[in-house]
Specification:
five-stranded mixed beta barrel; three-stranded antiparallel sheet; de novo design (two linked rop proteins); alpha+beta; single chain; about 260 residues; 2 domains; OB fold (Dihydrolipoamide Acetyltransferase, E2P); 8 helices
Length: about 260
Protein backbone atom coordinates (compact mmCIF):
# COMPACT_ATOMS: atom_id res chain seq x y z
CA UNK A 1 0.00 0.00 0.00
CA UNK A 2 1.64 3.28 -1.09
CA UNK A 3 1.76 6.09 1.48
CA UNK A 4 0.33 9.40 0.24
CA UNK A 5 0.74 12.87 1.77
CA UNK A 6 -1.08 16.06 0.83
CA UNK A 7 -2.62 19.26 2.10
CA UNK A 8 -6.37 18.86 2.33
CA UNK A 9 -9.65 20.35 3.52
CA UNK A 10 -12.07 18.25 5.57
CA UNK A 11 -15.40 18.42 3.74
CA UNK A 12 -17.53 16.15 5.93
CA UNK A 13 -17.43 13.11 8.22
CA UNK A 14 -19.73 10.17 8.97
CA UNK A 15 -19.94 7.76 11.87
CA UNK A 16 -18.67 4.25 11.18
CA UNK A 17 -19.15 1.34 13.60
CA UNK A 18 -18.64 2.29 17.25
CA UNK A 19 -15.48 4.39 17.26
CA UNK A 20 -14.49 5.07 13.64
CA UNK A 21 -15.27 7.77 11.08
CA UNK A 22 -15.51 7.99 7.32
CA UNK A 23 -14.03 11.31 6.23
CA UNK A 24 -14.28 13.14 2.92
CA UNK A 25 -11.33 15.35 1.99
CA UNK A 26 -10.50 17.69 -0.83
CA UNK A 27 -6.76 17.11 -1.22
CA UNK A 28 -4.41 19.32 -3.16
CA UNK A 29 -2.49 16.45 -4.78
CA UNK A 30 -5.11 13.70 -5.23
CA UNK A 31 -8.49 15.43 -5.54
CA UNK A 32 -11.46 14.23 -3.51
CA UNK A 33 -10.60 11.32 -1.24
CA UNK A 34 -12.77 9.28 1.12
CA UNK A 35 -11.07 7.47 3.96
CA UNK A 36 -11.52 5.63 7.24
CA UNK A 37 -10.10 7.11 10.44
CA UNK A 38 -9.87 4.23 12.90
CA UNK A 39 -10.67 5.16 16.48
CA UNK A 40 -11.48 8.76 15.54
CA UNK A 41 -14.52 8.85 17.84
CA UNK A 42 -12.63 7.68 20.91
CA UNK A 43 -12.35 10.20 23.74
CA UNK A 44 -8.55 10.29 23.36
CA UNK A 45 -8.31 9.94 19.61
CA UNK A 46 -4.94 10.57 17.98
CA UNK A 47 -6.71 12.83 15.50
CA UNK A 48 -7.99 15.32 18.08
CA UNK A 49 -9.95 18.10 16.36
CA UNK A 50 -8.22 17.65 13.00
CA UNK A 51 -11.19 15.84 11.43
CA UNK A 52 -13.68 18.63 12.06
CA UNK A 53 -15.24 20.09 8.90
CA UNK A 54 -13.86 23.45 7.73
CA UNK A 55 -10.32 22.43 8.75
CA UNK A 56 -7.21 22.57 6.58
CA UNK A 57 -4.88 19.67 7.37
CA UNK A 58 -1.74 17.83 6.42
CA UNK A 59 -3.09 14.40 5.54
CA UNK A 60 -1.23 11.11 5.28
CA UNK A 61 -3.03 7.98 4.12
CA UNK A 62 -2.56 4.51 2.69
CA UNK A 63 -4.26 3.64 -0.57
CA UNK A 64 -4.87 0.04 -1.58
CA UNK A 65 -5.66 -0.77 -5.19
CA UNK A 66 -9.26 -1.75 -5.77
CA UNK A 67 -10.57 -0.19 -2.56
CA UNK A 68 -12.77 2.90 -2.59
CA UNK A 69 -11.83 4.02 0.93
CA UNK A 70 -8.27 4.89 1.89
CA UNK A 71 -6.84 4.33 5.39
CA UNK A 72 -5.98 7.54 7.21
CA UNK A 73 -2.69 7.41 9.09
CA UNK A 74 -2.17 10.98 10.33
CA UNK A 75 -4.09 14.23 10.08
CA UNK A 76 -2.53 17.41 11.47
CA UNK A 77 -4.20 20.82 11.59
CA UNK A 78 -2.72 23.54 9.39
CA UNK A 79 -5.58 26.05 9.76
CA UNK A 80 -9.05 25.88 11.25
CA UNK A 81 -12.11 27.81 10.18
CA UNK A 82 -14.20 26.06 12.81
CA UNK A 83 -13.87 29.16 15.00
CA UNK A 84 -16.58 30.71 12.81
CA UNK A 85 -18.97 28.08 14.21
CA UNK A 86 -20.54 30.58 16.61
CA UNK A 87 -22.08 32.32 13.59
CA UNK A 88 -24.97 30.19 12.35
CA UNK A 89 -25.08 31.83 8.94
CA UNK A 90 -21.38 31.33 8.25
CA UNK A 91 -21.56 27.68 9.32
CA UNK A 92 -24.59 27.14 7.08
CA UNK A 93 -22.88 28.82 4.13
CA UNK A 94 -19.72 26.74 4.63
CA UNK A 95 -21.78 23.55 4.89
CA UNK A 96 -23.54 24.49 1.66
CA UNK A 97 -20.28 25.24 -0.19
CA UNK A 98 -18.64 22.02 0.99
CA UNK A 99 -21.73 20.02 0.03
CA UNK A 100 -21.49 21.52 -3.46
CA UNK A 101 -17.86 20.42 -3.64
CA UNK A 102 -18.79 16.88 -2.66
CA UNK A 103 -21.51 16.81 -5.32
CA UNK A 104 -19.47 18.29 -8.17
CA UNK A 105 -16.07 16.69 -7.69
CA UNK A 106 -15.22 13.23 -9.02
CA UNK A 107 -13.06 10.94 -6.92
CA UNK A 108 -9.26 11.10 -7.20
CA UNK A 109 -9.06 13.88 -9.80
CA UNK A 110 -6.76 16.68 -8.58
CA UNK A 111 -7.69 20.23 -9.55
CA UNK A 112 -5.16 22.82 -8.38
CA UNK A 113 -7.28 25.80 -9.47
CA UNK A 114 -10.30 24.55 -7.57
CA UNK A 115 -8.21 23.82 -4.49
CA UNK A 116 -6.86 27.37 -4.56
CA UNK A 117 -10.42 28.69 -4.96
CA UNK A 118 -11.50 26.90 -1.79
CA UNK A 119 -8.45 28.16 0.07
CA UNK A 120 -8.95 31.77 -1.04
CA UNK A 121 -12.69 31.83 -0.23
CA UNK A 122 -12.19 30.24 3.18
CA UNK A 123 -9.43 32.72 3.99
CA UNK A 124 -11.73 35.54 2.92
CA UNK A 125 -14.59 34.27 5.08
CA UNK A 126 -12.18 33.92 7.99
CA UNK A 127 -10.99 37.50 7.53
CA UNK A 128 -7.39 36.44 6.83
CA UNK A 129 -4.98 39.33 6.50
CA UNK A 130 -7.61 41.92 7.42
CA UNK A 131 -7.76 41.58 11.20
CA UNK A 132 -11.55 41.74 11.18
CA UNK A 133 -14.39 39.28 10.54
CA UNK A 134 -16.51 39.50 7.42
CA UNK A 135 -20.04 40.88 7.63
CA UNK A 136 -23.19 39.16 6.40
CA UNK A 137 -23.23 40.92 3.02
CA UNK A 138 -19.63 39.88 2.35
CA UNK A 139 -20.39 36.24 3.19
CA UNK A 140 -23.29 36.32 0.69
CA UNK A 141 -21.01 37.78 -1.96
CA UNK A 142 -18.33 35.17 -1.31
CA UNK A 143 -20.88 32.36 -1.57
CA UNK A 144 -22.01 33.65 -4.98
CA UNK A 145 -18.38 34.02 -6.07
CA UNK A 146 -17.69 30.43 -5.04
CA UNK A 147 -20.75 29.07 -6.89
CA UNK A 148 -19.81 30.83 -10.12
CA UNK A 149 -16.18 29.73 -10.03
CA UNK A 150 -17.10 26.16 -9.10
CA UNK A 151 -19.44 26.02 -12.08
CA UNK A 152 -16.82 27.59 -14.34
CA UNK A 153 -13.93 25.34 -13.25
CA UNK A 154 -16.21 22.30 -13.61
CA UNK A 155 -17.10 23.35 -17.17
CA UNK A 156 -20.76 24.19 -16.49
CA UNK A 157 -20.84 27.99 -16.47
CA UNK A 158 -22.10 29.52 -19.74
CA UNK A 159 -20.02 31.87 -21.86
CA UNK A 160 -21.58 35.30 -21.33
CA UNK A 161 -19.73 36.94 -24.24
CA UNK A 162 -21.84 35.85 -27.21
CA UNK A 163 -25.06 34.14 -28.29
CA UNK A 164 -24.70 30.37 -28.63
CA UNK A 165 -27.13 30.35 -31.59
CA UNK A 166 -26.16 33.23 -33.89
CA UNK A 167 -22.72 33.96 -32.45
CA UNK A 168 -23.32 37.70 -32.03
CA UNK A 169 -21.38 39.34 -29.19
CA UNK A 170 -23.38 40.78 -26.29
CA UNK A 171 -22.87 44.50 -25.77
CA UNK A 172 -22.52 45.87 -22.21
CA UNK A 173 -26.05 47.31 -22.46
CA UNK A 174 -27.66 44.13 -23.79
CA UNK A 175 -29.64 41.51 -21.83
CA UNK A 176 -29.20 37.84 -22.57
CA UNK A 177 -31.30 34.77 -21.84
CA UNK A 178 -30.19 31.38 -20.56
CA UNK A 179 -32.06 28.55 -22.26
CA UNK A 180 -33.25 25.40 -20.50
CA UNK A 181 -29.89 23.74 -21.08
CA UNK A 182 -28.01 26.80 -19.78
CA UNK A 183 -26.80 28.12 -23.14
CA UNK A 184 -26.77 31.93 -23.52
CA UNK A 185 -28.92 33.45 -26.25
CA UNK A 186 -29.73 36.92 -27.50
CA UNK A 187 -33.29 38.24 -27.37
CA UNK A 188 -33.98 37.41 -31.01
CA UNK A 189 -32.77 33.81 -30.82
CA UNK A 190 -34.37 33.13 -27.43
CA UNK A 191 -37.66 34.84 -28.18
CA UNK A 192 -37.36 36.35 -24.70
CA UNK A 193 -37.72 32.91 -23.10
CA UNK A 194 -35.49 31.49 -20.37
CA UNK A 195 -33.58 33.04 -17.46
CA UNK A 196 -33.01 36.71 -18.24
CA UNK A 197 -29.60 38.10 -17.32
CA UNK A 198 -29.82 41.88 -17.22
CA UNK A 199 -26.77 43.99 -18.17
CA UNK A 200 -26.04 45.01 -14.56
CA UNK A 201 -26.19 41.37 -13.40
CA UNK A 202 -23.96 40.23 -16.27
CA UNK A 203 -21.51 42.94 -15.24
CA UNK A 204 -21.30 41.48 -11.73
CA UNK A 205 -20.68 38.00 -13.15
CA UNK A 206 -17.83 39.36 -15.28
CA UNK A 207 -16.43 41.23 -12.27
CA UNK A 208 -16.12 37.90 -10.44
CA UNK A 209 -13.86 36.51 -13.18
CA UNK A 210 -11.34 39.32 -12.76
CA UNK A 211 -11.39 39.74 -8.98
CA UNK A 212 -9.85 38.12 -5.92
CA UNK A 213 -12.64 36.98 -3.55
CA UNK A 214 -11.77 39.60 -0.91
CA UNK A 215 -11.86 42.42 -3.45
CA UNK A 216 -15.13 41.15 -4.91
CA UNK A 217 -16.80 40.81 -1.52
CA UNK A 218 -15.97 44.45 -0.76
CA UNK A 219 -17.46 45.77 -4.00
CA UNK A 220 -19.88 43.08 -5.13
CA UNK A 221 -22.88 45.19 -6.04
CA UNK A 222 -26.21 45.69 -4.35
CA UNK A 223 -28.30 43.05 -2.60
CA UNK A 224 -30.82 42.79 -5.45
CA UNK A 225 -28.07 41.92 -7.96
CA UNK A 226 -26.62 39.26 -5.65
CA UNK A 227 -30.11 37.83 -5.05
CA UNK A 228 -30.64 37.53 -8.81
CA UNK A 229 -27.23 35.88 -9.22
CA UNK A 230 -28.19 33.43 -6.48
CA UNK A 231 -31.34 32.47 -8.43
CA UNK A 232 -29.41 31.99 -11.67
CA UNK A 233 -26.66 29.97 -9.97
CA UNK A 234 -29.29 27.81 -8.30
CA UNK A 235 -30.84 26.93 -11.65
CA UNK A 236 -27.44 26.13 -13.18
CA UNK A 237 -26.50 23.95 -10.21
CA UNK A 238 -29.82 22.08 -10.32
CA UNK A 239 -29.27 21.33 -14.00
CA UNK A 240 -25.89 19.85 -13.17
CA UNK A 241 -26.77 17.63 -10.22
CA UNK A 242 -30.51 17.29 -11.03
CA UNK A 243 -31.69 18.25 -7.54
CA UNK A 244 -31.15 20.71 -4.71
CA UNK A 245 -28.38 20.11 -2.22
CA UNK A 246 -29.78 19.57 1.27
CA UNK A 247 -28.24 22.64 2.87
CA UNK A 248 -29.80 24.95 0.26
CA UNK A 249 -33.15 24.60 2.03
CA UNK A 250 -31.57 25.67 5.31
CA UNK A 251 -30.12 28.74 3.59
CA UNK A 252 -33.57 29.67 2.31
CA UNK A 253 -34.99 29.40 5.83
CA UNK A 254 -32.27 31.71 7.13
CA UNK A 255 -33.00 34.19 4.33
CA UNK A 256 -36.69 34.24 5.25
CA UNK A 257 -35.85 35.23 8.82
CA UNK A 258 -33.66 38.18 7.86
Amino acid sequence: MPLRTSEAFVLKTYKLAEVDKICVFLTRSFGKVRGVARGARKLKSIYGASLEPFTKVSLTFFEKEGRELVSIKTCDILASYFGQASDVEIVTQLSYLFELLDEFLPEHEPNEKLYRLVEAVLDAIGGAGRGEPVVREEVEALARYFEVWLLRLSGFFPDLKSCAICGSAFSPQQSLWLAGDGTPQCEKCSGGRGERVAPNVRSVFLKMFGSHPVAFSKAAGDAAELARIKEINHQLIRRCIERDVRSYGVLKQLDSKT
